[in-house]
Amino acid sequence: MRMNHRKVWASIIVVAMLGIAFVGLATETQNNNTEYFDGSPFDTPTTEKTRGPGVERVVLLERFTNYGCPPCAPASESEEMFTDDYHGKVAVVKYHCPGPQPLDPMYITNDAPQLGRINYYGISTIPHIVVDGVDRTTGQFAIIKWNTLYRMYGARAAIMSPFSISINAELGATMGTVFVNVTAEDAVPGGILKVRTVLWFSSVDYPSAPGNSGESHFENVFMDFIPNSSGNTLTISQGQTVNFVETFTIPTEIRSNIPDGGDDPAILVDRSQLGITAFVQDDGSSEVHQAGMFSFGDVAVEATDIMLTSSTPNEGDIVGVSVRVTNYGEDTEGVYVRGYIDQLGGKPIGPHIPTGALTKGQKKLVGLGAWDTAGQPGDHKLYVMADSTFDMTENDEFNNVATKDISVTSVIDVGIDQTYPFSSMMLYPMSNYSVGGFVKNFGQNAIGNFDVGIELYQVGPPDVSTQVQFDDFEGSVTVSWSQRGPRNSWEFGSPTVGPGAYSGVNVWATELSGTYPSVAHDWLMTPIFNLPSASSGITLSFYHYYEFDTRTPSFTYYYDCGNLWLTIDEGITWIHLDHFIDANGAYTLETYDITQYAGQSIRVAFELASDRYASANLGWFIDDFEISAMLPTETFVWNTTTQLSSILSSGESELMTWKHKIITGGTHKLYMWTPLGGDMNPTNDMLSVTFDIDPTKWRNMIGPGSTLMSSPLALTETDIGNIVAPVSSTITQVRTYSTILDEWSAYMPYKPVNSLATVDHKMGMWVTTDTDTYVDFTGTIPGVNVDIALEEGWNLVGYPSMTDRTVADALMGIAYDRIEGYDPAGPYNLRQMTDTDWITSGQAYWILVSTPGQTWSVGA
Q: Can you list the positions of beta strands (E) in 472-551?
């Protein structure tokens, strides 16, 4: 498009009359805050999504710049690195302004719509960026920095969008057609809704800098609105899709900035560099509700094109992975393709595979390698990325990642599915418990008669720092540590330059034999670590040596750095722990308190971020990575013989329990395990649960019918109504018998007046219910012997002790004729006991004596 430059100057004068002096457009000077480039290694910043209806938001970044604005150059660097980091998560439009240096060729190529957008937002200083129409860089943030964008993007990305947008386009000889489809996935917000569509060039390159900013390379350069800057009115209801089809003239050049009358060397641009951004905007509030991007230079992978040699593999199978790659672009080009398991950039299936040159429309099947599923049963997600960073050009990064869900069936896999009856960190009374849990056949084949064991420990306060994870890198490198990034700069081994290793000979470093590369956002990622449930003292530490470039133009601005990240949700969000700039001169120890993530699974990432300028420095060296924690002490309390399971079919569970009386308060930990040989998934062979015991409570579990019981605690709550109040709807009656009075006393919750009002720990009680329930007693463990008077005849007595004894031991010295205890299978729920039977806490007994005036002294 050619333009009369007198028209350009006229536009400047008109706008100046409106109060925005674009001839001398202001540029922000650097504030006193030193900044640096940093970048998140994955797709989402540290912002929790506002979940609910709607779809993930693609955030629109509209940047205002000028070819003669010196601060715009580092701002461009930051913005381009940020959009590279968040490809697919942001859409970009870049408008050029008429000042401070006039005749910006990317402005005068099509000035009117860009000037209209400047007026729309009231832009008066540059560099300037508007995020989703409602947030912008102003004041001290006008020097656009990576972490400024990170904060602004995160605030918007956290809000789900009510709309989804799909974009497609076709190019003819001189005309193009764009198709924009908007679907209302949720309730449609009010306002003046418009759909705006922008045409841009992905890259414009000059032989030398055309303006005072020093830039010769410009990205995402605005060309025009389609059909115009006013956009199309969007009238839509929830569940509807509205389609917009518009045509446009295909631009071929960027205007020169030489006035009429001189040479006019326009910059020619390739049509394959064309791209489209479309967005839904409320003209009342200027808020952008959703955005999307499309590029004609486009090699893509699609979810439907991922192929597996087995879609339902059994554990241990080798699964071959292939992908069909398609060139949807105009030009012949190629990319590298790589597959990952469970996380983009996580465990790779194999190396990067080149597609070779693909002509327009050509499809090619690429083998990515074989995935060994041994030890990896369960549901997984397979990621395939078409990576353009190996000196290739992949303009559209919205469709270069595809995913496929895959489930691996375990053939032989038994494990512990759930503990019983305890849940994590819950408070329970003392009791005669049936403890254990559910064993489950997670595998495909029926299996049984395998051992199951159990152990109980008492947990004390944290004692000493314990090493939870440690890697000095002196073993062979494994797939558990992985790297990702455009330059693949992280290397494992013995460095031949720099400081060497901190200990041993091996490190992870950004190049073992030279300086680190330019244009890098390369990430070294740890395996996933399961942190203990410690309440304090969990630390992450490592030794490192680093030296990064520092450039100092008219203001201090750090270009290269290292960043430390942590994720607790396998990369959905990332938490920025630290950054490192300049150089530290020698190996130093870094330590971070990560106690707040106790009990969670974490992954740590080390990121190298560098600009496009070559470095003469060595980069980053990592050694002796460690996670430690102040772990509680675990003191052994009890175990017993293992039990054999039943034969379990696939998916079947079985509850297995052991009897054990827990009589100490405080924190306990129960372990249950099944050490089956040949189990292909040992990760579920053991399960533990940590719980607390209240030393002032005792619980008797009872079932339907009448149960004989007592309290082993010296009661502090003796009112029977208060004792059974929590379960009064399940209790029919409580009865006790007085030998002296030869009469029964009873309490019935539904009666207003009862003969039994209080109880104590010397009494035996019959409790009647028609369902499974319990009775809790509150008191203290007797510290001395408790004396119980035995009268002539039948005595219904309790057993106020936490020590179980045989009848012979418990009644030693007592002249008794007969003792009967509770037995739900016996007549009257009783049976006669022998000398070898056990008298236990919580039970009550009938004792028949002929000699009156005896005292039974029950030991503590």
A: 482-484, 490-493, 507-510, 521-525, 529-530, 539-547
Q: 397-425: per-residue pLDDT in tens?
A: 445 777 888 988 878 889 999 999 999 98
Residue type, 578: D
SS3 state at 157: helix
Residue with tokens 């190396």: 351
CA 665, CA 508: separation in Å to the nearest integer? 48
Place of tokens 């010397």: 762
pLDDT band at 146 (very low <50, low <70, confident <90, very high): low
Specify the DSSP element, H or E, that contains 461: strand 451-471
Residue 320, both tokens: 């071959």
Query: CA torsion angle for 832, 838, 844, 845 (degrees, to 10)?
Result: 30
Secondary structure letter of residue 30 according to DSSP = P
Question: How far is C-alpha 739 from the geometric centre of its chain's CA atoms?
Answer: 66
Half-sphere exposure of 653 (CA within 13 A, CB side): 11
Residue-wise pLDDT tens digits, 772-787: 999 999 999 998 999 9
- Element counts in the chain: helices (H) and strands (E): 7, 56
Domains 58-295 and 466-632 share a fold: no
Give the C-alpha separation, 35 to 151, whole Å.
Answer: 14
pLDDT value of position 141: 38
Residue with tokens 């470093």, as numbered in its chain: 509
Residue 439 near residue 415 (C-beta atoms within 8 A): yes
List the CATH code of the domain at 299-408: 2.60.40.10
Contact 802, 726 (CB under 8 A): no
Cα–Cα distance measured from residue 150 to residue 82, given in angstroms and rounded to the nearest whole number: 8
How many angstroms from the chain centroid is the CA of residue 80? 26
Q: Over 80: is that where the pLDDT of 680 sits?
A: no
Q: How far apart are the first and last CA of the chain?
A: 100
Letter string b/e over residues 333-357, b meaning 16 or more CB atoms within 10 A of that residue's CB: bbbbbbbbbebbbbbbbeebbebee
Residue with tokens 């003292």: 537
Rounded to two decimals, the pTM is 0.56
> In angstroms, rounded to a whole number, what is the distance separating the alpha carbons of residues 305 and 442?
31
What pLDDT shows up at residue 830? 97
Which comes out higher in pLDDT, residue 194 or 349?
194
List all residues 6 or more positions away from 31 whose beta carbon is below 8 Å from its beta carbon.
140, 143
The pair of structure tokens assigned to 759 is 């109880």
Band of pLDDT at residue 263, cut at 50, 70 and 90: very low
Half-sphere exposure at residue 413, Cβ-oriented, CA atoms within 13 angstroms: 23
Q: Give the pairing type, strands 318-327 and 299-308.
A: antiparallel
CATH of 58-295, one of 3.40.50.720, 2.60.200.30, 2.60.40.2890, 2.60.40.10: 2.60.40.10
**Assigned CATH class of 466-632:** mainly beta
Which residue bears the tokens 């297995």? Answer: 656
Return d(Cα 522, Cα 534) in angstroms, integer: 32
Are residues 536 and 630 in contact, defined by beta-carbon separation less than 8 angstroms? yes
pLDDT of the residue at 514:
93
Percentage of the residues of the chain whose pLDDT score is greater than 70: 85
pLDDT band, residue 164 (cuts 50/70/90): very high
* Alpha-carbon separation of residue 506 from 467, 476, 493, 496, 500 (angstroms): 20, 10, 5, 11, 8
Where is pLDDT greater, at 143 or 532?
A: 532
Report the greatest alpha carbon distance in the chain. Answer: 134
**Taking the domains of the chain in order of start, what are their residue ranges?**
58-295, 299-408, 414-450+645-696, 466-632, 703-858
What distance in Å separates the CA atoms of residue 158 and residue 156, rounded to the nearest whole number?
A: 5
pLDDT in tens, 371-388: 888 778 788 888 887 765
Residue 392 confidence (pLDDT) above 60: no
Quickly list DSSP for 426-437. -EEEEEEEEEEE
Task: Give the CA count within 13 Å in the CB-facing half-sphere of 846.
Answer: 19
For 422, counting Cβ atoms within 10 Å of its Cβ (0-12 exposed, 13-18 middle, 19+ buried), the class is buried
